[in-house]
User: What shape does this take?
Amino acid sequence: MGWLHLRRDCASLTRHWGSLHHVQADPRVQGRGVGTTLMAEARRIAREEMGLRQLHLAARGGAGLENFYGRLGWKEIGRWPAALRLAGDDYRDEVFMLLDPL
Assistant: This one.
């Protein structure tokens, strides 16, 4: 139904934070809470099992993801305009987001 990849940063100065990658829910189940459940469990694992303090992620702009993550407590901390090239001449911003504290 959905999946994500959670990893800890290995550098000594940033070992207290992790990052989420490839957050995806099957489009057939979108709107049924799968993404919210995935994100809540990632937050719990990061805090309780990994002892992290912050989570970071990068999302594709223009797809409503900023609003989705914002409802879950994430804050936009930066934006790289036209960083992502989709099909043809369709460019999207890459949006950098932070969840702190966990």
